[in-house]
Design goal:
single chain, alpha+beta, Helicase, Ruva Protein, domain 3, Tetrahydropterin Synthase, Chain A, 3 domains
């Protein structure tokens, strides 16, 4: 099937995919835009998975101070090379993450970073609350796990919806930039100060 250059351009604008990837996605999906977008997502997820084992030993520290001068944030964002660390898009990503930390006040980077001790009291309260409703123990356990998972995600920067675009999480934004910049990108640390 012959792919029209205007279709490639339209798909690139919609997905930020490189030109050759957009063309290949349209070829593979026989011109179907929805299938092409899905093909690009799968390719992106595969690339992110490949990059996961790499070491992100370069990077930058980005700061953000809110306009009221009462909230300040430092974020250490890692990448593989100094070349990408100096890239405008990488710096903009670091700044966006710093603004997210200022706005949402996460406590941890990933859900797996939340200590179990911190969740123990929450689990106890949830278990007691549903035990009063005389639900079976296995149902109570499943409910508690679901609620604890939500708490973990709420406390974690990676799982938060972007303040500027609630349709995407920080984790998805980083995956998107990993594909675009073709390097592993990771949040190493962040600190938030508030008066």
């Amino acid at each position: 099937m012959k792919i029209n250059i205007s279709d490639v351009k339209k798909l690139r604008q919609q997905t930020n995919a490189p030109m050759m990837d957009a063309k290949k996605a349209l070829e593979e999906s026989k011109g179907d835009f929805d299938k092409a977008v899905e093909w690009l997502r799968k390719k992106g997820a595969d690339m992110v998975a490949k990059k996961a084992g790499r070491e992100a030993k370069e990077g930058i520290v980005e700061s953000y101070v809110h306009s009221n001068k009462k909230i300040g944030v430092l974020v250490e964002l890692g990448c593989e090379t100094d070349f990408v660390a100096k890239n405008e898009e990488f710096v903009a990503l670091a700044h966006e993450i710093a603004m997210q930390v200022a706005a949402s006040d996460p406590k941890y980077i990933n859900p797996t970073d939340v200590p179990e001790e911190e969740l123990a009291n929450e689990k106890k309260v949830i278990m007691e609350m549903f035990a009063k409703e005389k639900k079976p123990q296995d149902v109570i356990e499943k409910i508690a796990e679901g609620k604890l998972e939500k708490i973990r995600n709420d406390l974690s920067l990676a799982k938060q919806s972007l303040v500027k675009n609630p349709d995407i999480t920080i984790e998805e934004l980083i995956a998107e930039k990993t594909v675009k910049l073709s390097e592993k990108i990771e949040i190493r640390k962040f600190v938030r100060y508030e008066i």
